[in-house]
Amino acid sequence: MKHLLLKLEPIIWLLFGAGLSVGTMLLTGFVIVVGLAIPMGLVDPSALAYPRAHALASSGLGRLVVLGLIALPLWKGAHHIRSLSVDFHGGDRDGAVGGLLYLAAAICSVMGIIAVAQL
Amino acid sequence: MAGAAHPEAMAPPKKGPTRTAPPRMPESWWGAQRIRTYLLFGATGIVYFVAGTVVLKLAWALGTGPEAWDRALGNLSHPLYLIFHALTLVSLIFVGLRAFGTMMPKMQPRNGPLPVLAAGTVKGLFLSVWVALTVLLGLVLAGKIFP
Amino acid sequence: MAESNKRMRVEILRFDPDKDEVPRSQEYEIPVQEDWKVLDAINYIKDEVDPTVSHRWSCRMAVCGSCGMMVNGEPKLTCKTSLSDYEGSIKIEPLANFPIVRDLVVDMDGFMDKFRKVKPWIVRAKERAEDMENLSEKGTYSQSPAELATFKQFSMCINCLLCYAACPVIANEPDFIGPAAIALGHRYNLDSRDEGDRGRNEIFRGEGTVFSCSFANECSEVCPKNVDPAAAVNQAKLAAVVDWAKGLILPREGA
Amino acid sequence: MVQVSRHDIVIVGGGGAGLRAAIAAAEANPDLSVALVSKVYPMRSHTVSAEGGAAAIARDDDSLELHGFDTVKGSDFLGDQDVIEYFVEHAPRELALLENWGCPWSRNDDGTVATRAFGGMSTKRTWYATDKVGFHMLHSLFQQSMRYDNIVRYDEYFVSKLLVEDGACQGVAALEIRTGEFHAILGRSVILATGGAGKIFPFTTNGTIKTGDGMALAYRAGVALKDMEFVQYHPTGLPGTGILITEAARGEGGFLRNNKDERFLVEYDYGVGDKAELGPRDMVSRAIIKEFEAGRGFENRYGSYCVVDLRHLGEEHINAKLPFVRELAKTYMGVDPVHEYIPIRPVVHYMMGGVDTDINAATDLPGLYAAGEVACGSLNGANRLGSNSLTECLVFGAVAARSALDFARGASDGDSARLVAQVEEEAARVNALRGNGKGNEHVSALRTEMNSTMEAGCGVYRHQDTMQVAADETRNIRQRVADLHLKDTSKVFNTELISALELQNMVELAEVLALGAVHRKESRGAHTCRDYPTRDDQNYLYHTLAHRTEDGPRLGRKEVNLGHWEPQERKY
Ligand SMILES: Cc1cc2nc3c(=O)[nH]c(=O)nc-3n(C[C@H](O)[C@H](O)[C@H](O)COP(=O)(O)OP(=O)(O)OC[C@H]3O[C@@H](n4cnc5c(N)ncnc54)[C@H](O)[C@@H]3O)c2cc1C
Ligand code: SF4
Ligand code: F3S
Ligand code: FES
């Protein structure tokens, strides 16, 4: 496992980097409006009524943004949790922990692709 | 010193010629503010991971149909979600400041085709793009532009 | 010389494999001078109180890199750290993350292996004798001040190993090449005279991978020479990834 | 148990000279095995602390003749002119090689290597890498040396004896500091590159490892020491620590000032106007002492001092050319040279003398060669010009390797059994010393006594009476050093034992130094007698040799190799 991870490291790192930068940039506005402002009633929820939400998300750019919002934080998260595990004396189990985390991120990313394709 | 480091940390490949005491970790590892900040930075990974799945769930609902979407959106008013998103926002700001403020300026390739900019310039650039994107996406999502 | 009558408690970690099963700590109370560095206190103890204390030092001007130790839990160059930064008592231990040979002396063989692994020398495609077209009549390569500036900072490392003692990753990932050695390899990659970056990038991506670094930035925080190894390591990551991507697209001759 | 290993060439010392020799030997033949033995990891060697630069002609307005003459004149005509000619001729190639190996030399805008002015050099010929030249040179050399699989490093091994059998040097006895075990490191020829001996004195720019071991090793093996009375004081060391403020501080345009705020050097009769600060080190050091004596020095708890003024250079220039000076002044003196004066005083810096070698770096003992500060070739004569010695390490390091290779080719492996027996004997001696609780003398106390004796007797200005006292006292100290009391019984990394061995080496040299000084009744270069204030070519234009006998050094003389530069009065 460790060996496979070593081979994949460049891709993982790219995805992590994208999550760290692009992911953070996209997620901030999303969380402020969708996660906080609308549920707290600060913004009229009709802004994200189904027709408009669907229209926004199913445009070409929209699909891309949605996929980015799903996959990028997952990879940033998976990679960071892995290094956290190493920091807590997890050097030895790194192969297994990393493998599981990336597998989870990969599965969720594929589901994200399906979700976006369904729009 | 707190706790033992990995017994092989920086150890020579073969056994040394004299008996050594195993390496130890610096006390500052958890005790010092700097390291705590770094570990918290790593811990935001958990928040990000969950946030990704939340968006996945919303996207799935949006693809399923209007009722599913309304239900999913309605769920977000649950206090647990609200707390989580507040936490996410804090994490995002923390990560953004650290990533764009200190990490990106250091990562600039020095011998690439691009000119090497002053750390402050890079920091400024990234921070402003971040704010701009956030405002733009926020306005779109809030229905203020692109009605 | 005006004597000050300030005294200080100095706690030193002792370990003698001939006698001690595990390291123990020993306390000394000594008179100290206002302008002393931490190293002066240790030397005072060795010369006047207890000659059995073992430590490494030489230049006492922060350039030979031998006197790195943990001072109150932080990695410090003891000949550069003022005693007056500490009040009342002070605790001195060998560098963290390294096996302890004796007292304040650590085993740095592991580091020396990593040091050599990154091929810290100028690699040229051709031998010097066949490279004459690139050399001036005086026998030197041309290098502009700007080209020099790209790597100069990373060539300032004195191998004091403070960064290894500070890095939270190295403690758990014994293979990780670590900040100073990666900075050194990266320094050669950036040198306009060098043509060995592909080989080093492969090493960076291989065992002891640069990707083990999780950008804790601790290495740069403690570096006494402002080498900023964290920058080097993370630039090296980026360069190694770009190099890897290039390798996917363009088939390499001789690969 | 003595461990035995065999190599073709054994190099003792991993500083500039030792590493250069190792690379030269390893490069010459990949099948050759080269042992590089050093008491510290090579990158800790004191070459690391050199700041100012390395000399070799680089500009079109310069010539071999000029560099040669500057060196001869700097040496106060005691330098051997064949050696000097060889040196200046080969210097440029050596520095260029270092460039090829990655040394980050500072550059001109057109991409060529930049040079700076230095004391006693008539034009800009000192190559530099900001003000950390020795550091960059040493690390470039060390890193380059890692290329060669046939260089076998013995890091942290203390050489305590040269093995001489059948009239030739055939290896060394080395104490592995980590284990406390002795090794017989055998070779067909041996190169000494162990550096200087500044630690004989209390205030010095030298690091704690510069204890003259190689000089003492050769001396005990019957080789003569040459010109040991010539000790260079560097005019600008920090009071207290002795940390060096490089001559480049003056080369880049800094001024020296006394407590009247005068540029007092202008008053002395060498140099004019703007170049007043660029005098050679011996003269500038004397000028500073004269200021002290005239009451024009500042005072602090370390005694008198003058100051270096860099303020007019401006922050930008200081940061570009002298960043390390700024760092050192801030860290160790608490002053920022951009706005404040840096306190300085003359401190011991360099040993012109050393193991007697010829132009081939060969000693009188077949199979033994020496290069770098440990050797006396004699390039530096009575006074070394700043920035010549780093280049000397390279030029003569390479020469020593070549000579040692030639010798090794013709030599046969020695008789291992007899060599190992010697090492066993040496091991027994050292083991008896370790933790020897019976003695009466303490290492640090005796060292302090030696230090103050030398400071009092063999300082910048010397006097027959005081030198004679020093000669007597050093003799006494040498006898007492046999009776050391040591506490540390551990075999592992016993630094008390190492200090004791180093002290045993230093006291031998101190005696030679003091005796050589008393006997030279003239003033030449760094050796300045108040009672004999002029140079006396009639009676003293020769090298002092010292051979070891049980009752102390036996002095002799060796002709100076004069060439086409006739001795003349030394004026700047
Ligand atoms: C502060 C300072 C600044 C200087 N600035 C300049 C300058 O600007 N320009 C210039 O030209 N010169 C300068 N010099 C002089 C120059 O640096 C030295 O003369 C030169 O570096 C000596 O190099 P070396 O190789 O002979 O010895 P070193 O670098 O001293 O190396 C000695 C080596 O021998 C080893 N060794 C010693 N004893 C033993 C033993 N018993 N067993 C095993 N190994 C041993 C040591 O471990 C070390 O590796 C300066 C000197 C000082 C102190
Ligand atoms: S990078 Fe800095 S801290 Fe690390 S070894 Fe080099 S000088 Fe020391
Ligand atoms: S501290 Fe360690 S984790 Fe990376 S940035 Fe420095 S190497
Ligand atoms: S003694 Fe050389 S760096 Fe501290």
How does the overall form of chain D come out from the CA principal axes? globular
Give the distance, in angstroms, between the N- and C-terminal Cα atoms of chain D.
59 Å
CATH topology type of the largest domain in chain D: FAD/NAD(P)-binding domain
Based on helices, strands and strand pairing, what is the structural class of chain B?
Answer: mainly alpha
Which architecture name of the largest domain in chain D does CATH use? 3-Layer(bba) Sandwich
Number of domains of chain B: 2
Mean pLDDT of chain B: 90
What labels describe this entry?
heterotetramer; A: 3 helical TM bundles of succinate and fumarate reductases; C: 255 residues; alpha+beta; Ubiquitin-like (UB roll); Fumarate Reductase Iron-sulfur Protein, Chain B, domain 2; 2 domains; five-stranded mixed β-sheet; binds flavin-adenine dinucleotide; binds iron/sulfur cluster; binds FE3-S4 cluster; binds FE2/S2 (inorganic) cluster
How does this structure look, described?
The complex is a heterotetramer of chains A (119), B (147), C (255) and D (572). With 119 residues, chain A is an all-alpha fold. Chain A has one domain (2-117): 3 helical TM bundles of succinate and fumarate reductases, CATH 1.20.1300. Chain A has helices spanning 2-37, 50-58, 60-90, 94-118. The longest helix of chain A has 36 residues, at 2-37. Chain A is elongated and about 50 Å long. The model of chain B has no long low-confidence stretch (mean pLDDT 90). Chain B has 5 helices and 2 strands, in the order ββααααα. Chain B is mainly alpha-helical. Chain B has a two-stranded antiparallel ribbon with strand order 1-2. Chain C has 2 domains: 7-106, Ubiquitin-like (UB roll), CATH 3.10.20.30; 109-249, Alpha-helical ferredoxin (Fumarate Reductase Iron-sulfur Protein, Chain B, domain 2), CATH 1.10.1060. In chain C, helix 5 (179-190) crosses helix 8 (229-249). With 572 residues, chain D is α/β, with parallel strands linked by helices. Chain D folds into 3 domains: 3-53 and 88-98 and 128-231 and 350-376 and 386-420, FAD/NAD(P)-binding domain; 236-346, Flavocytochrome C3, Chain A, domain 1; 424-549, Methane Monooxygenase Hydroxylase, Chain G, domain 1 (Up-down Bundle). The termini of chain D are far apart. Classes of the chains: A mainly alpha (119), B mainly alpha (147), C alpha+beta (255), D alpha/beta (572). The interface between C and D is large, with 62 and 63 residues. The structure holds flavin-adenine dinucleotide (FAD), iron/sulfur cluster (SF4), FE3-S4 cluster and FE2/S2 (inorganic) cluster (FES). FE3-S4 cluster binds at residues 166-167, 169, 179, 213-219, 230, 233 of chain C.
